[in-house]
Structures are given as C-alpha cells and as structure tokens.
Amino acid sequence: MGNRETLLELLKSEKNCWISGEILRQDLGISRNAVSKHIRALRNKGYEIESSTKKGYRLDGPQDLIIPQEILDGLNTRVLGRQEIFCLKETDSTNSQARAIADGGAGEGTLVLAESQTLGRGRKGRTWFSPKGEGLFISMILRPLMSPMESSRLTLLAAVALAEALIDSTGLEIRIKWPNDLLCNGRKVAGILTELSTDMDTVNHVIIGLGLNVNTPRKSFPEDLKEKASSLLVESGRPHSRCKITQLFLERFELHYDTLADHGFPQLLSRWKALSDSVGQKVCVEMIDKTLTGIIQDVDSNGFLILEDEKRVRHSILSGDVIPLTGKKNDR
Ligand code: BTN
C-alpha cells in the first residue's frame, strides 16, 4: 500500500473525526508538504476532506464514491472488475461506452460505470431515467464461450445476481419479473439491458447493462414513472451504498457465471424461478408484432417464457413485456 492509500485508510478509520496533520505526518514518515499533496490528490478523486489549521484533517461521511479504488476495496472476485474499471462522471450510456471499448478489444470483466447518463437506454428503445449520484449505472463486458441462442441465459443470471445482492444488502423483498425486471412491492427498482455482438454462430462479446434506482427520492421520479418505478431508498426508508451493492452484485454474478460454465443452466434456472413470481400468473405479453394473453407455465432451458393462451396453445417467447393481469402496479 502506498502512502496515499495508507493516508486514506487512516482518515477512514477516524471517519468524521479530526486527525492532526502532525500525527498523519509521523505515522506515514513523510513531510507536511507531502501530506497536503496527498490530501489534494484525494480531493481530486472526489473524497470530501475538510481541513483546519488547528485541528488537521477530517473525512466527511458517509461517502459513496463510484471510483475504481472504492469498488476494488474488499471486492472478492477473480475476473469481474479485475481488468479496467472506467468510472465516468457523465456519459451518454454506459452500454454504448462498453460496446465501443469491447470493440476495441477490452477483456472480460472490464466495467464501465457512470454517475449519470444523458441517453441511458432501456429495452425496446426506451430511455432509462439516470439522475446524477442517486442510481447505479453499470455495464460489464463478458466474452462467454456460448452460442448467441444461449446468451439469453446471461440476462436471467444478471437478474438473479442482482436480486440476491439486493436482498442481502437491504433485506427488502425483491422479486424478478421475466425476463429481467427487479420489483419491490410491485414497483420496478432495476432493469437489465443485454446487448450482443456476434460473428456467425459465435459470441464476440456480451454487454450486460444494469440500471438500479438506489437513493432516488419519490419526488425525483418523472410523473410517468412515479406509479410504476421505485428506489431502494423509497422502499426501505434509508439510503444504501452504491459501492457495496456493486461489489455484492459482481461477486454473486461471478459465482453464478462459474456455475453456469461448470454445471450448465438447470441450477441457475431453478434459482431464477424461486426468485420470480411469474410462473402461474395470468398475464398479457406485448411483443413487437402481437400481444398474447394467458398463463405463464414455465421458463425453458434457454430462458424463453412459455405461455399457454386461452385456447390452451403453448407459445415460446424470447422477448416481450409482461403485464400482470392480477392488479399489480408494474406494467413496464
Ligand atoms: C430496462 O429497460 O429495464 C433495462 C434498463 C437498463 C438500463 C441500464 S443503465 C446502465 C446501462 N446503460 C444503458 O444505457 N442502459 C443500461
């Protein structure tokens, strides 16, 4: 650990308390000037550090910085986040950035995160509400050895990993709505956008983009989302650490990704079903070219939705919007 990291650790260990410049200088064995230089560099990274000529320095908390150093601090993964982590203040879309970086050859596990997005993209050409500092907008680059057909499994995997991370870190009851919406009390708190680059029958790369409403107050949501969307803050009544959730998500994702490679899809699929309340529900599924009404029977081994319509005909659906017909709030 270098002097700057040690200095940060000292400030963190005394969060919200003053530490004199002299103590920092002595502990690190460096000059006062060097202490000030490191403090300046930490401030430039986004840490809010107060200084007083009499009292020294104080790290103000809580700080939930989306910067590589904080994401890596305590992260327990082998691949995800072990290549480059790009943390952007503002970008058009982290998925678009990740795709450009992947086209340039970036390796599996490269991450792109942003504090806000100006053109955040959702499924079916929708926009994704991406206000500054309140949400989590992450895209990761994967290079799986699987066919394009099988890659829809990764969307379900991401939904399972995120649901587990959220249940662990917030205690909230999170449910998955096929294929990739995360709901809390019937309102959408997160969505996943999977984008594929293929070459004939092989996958070049997959971008998994995840948008999560973390600390968004109810009043911040645009009118058209107020009823159907929510955030972890609204549902739990307290703020949550975006950095901690990112770490938990990456760890869970990697665990399931390894299991998928070693043991196939069945284990993951049953986990997905356990976290979803889709099976057995009467729904309407809106697809690009038609709308079907029926009962969800299952999700098959490629992640397709199996719907039985009113005439008892079974349909296998790759992509669509599921609208529950049981009076639930979310229809997005
Ligand atoms: C959905 O429609 O439910 C999917 C939403 C996915 C949004 C995320 S935010 C990070 C990444 N970048 C994007 O532009 N979209 C995804």
The number of domains is: 3
Unreliable segments of 5+ consecutive residues: 327-332
Biggest sheet, in brief?
Answer: 7 strands, mixed
Overall 3D shape: elongated
User: What is the arithmetic mean of pLDDT?
Assistant: 92
How big a fraction of the residues is strand? 25-35%
Helix content: 25-40%
- Biggest β-sheet: strands ordered side by side in the sheet: 3-4-5-9-8-7-6
Tell me, what is the CATH class of the largest domain? Alpha Beta
DSSP summary, beta strand count: 14
Q: What is the CATH topology assignment of the largest domain? A: BirA Bifunctional Protein, domain 2
Under the CATH scheme, the architecture of the largest domain is: 2-Layer Sandwich
Structural class assignment: alpha+beta
Topology:
Elements: H1 3-13, H2 21-28, H3 32-45, E1 49-52, E2 56-59, H4 68-72, E3 85-91, H5 94-103, E4 111-117, E5 135-142, H6 152-170, E6 174-177, E7 181-184, E8 187-199, E9 202-213, H7 223-226, H8 232-236, H9 242-263, H10 266-275, E10 282-286, E11 291-299, E12 305-309, E13 314-317, E14 321-324
Parallel strand pairs: 3-4
Antiparallel strand pairs: 1-2, 4-5, 5-9, 6-7, 7-8, 8-9, 10-11, 10-14, 11-12, 12-13
What can you tell me about this protein's structure?
33% of the residues lie in helices and 27% in strands. It is of the alpha+beta class and 332 residues long. It folds into three domains: 57 residues, Winged helix-like DNA-binding domain superfamily/Winged helix DNA-binding domain (Arc Repressor Mutant, subunit A); 207 residues, Bira Bifunctional Protein, Domain 2 (BirA Bifunctional Protein, domain 2, 2-Layer Sandwich), CATH 3.30.930; 43 residues, SH3 type barrels (Roll). The C terminus is likely disordered. Bound molecules: biotin.
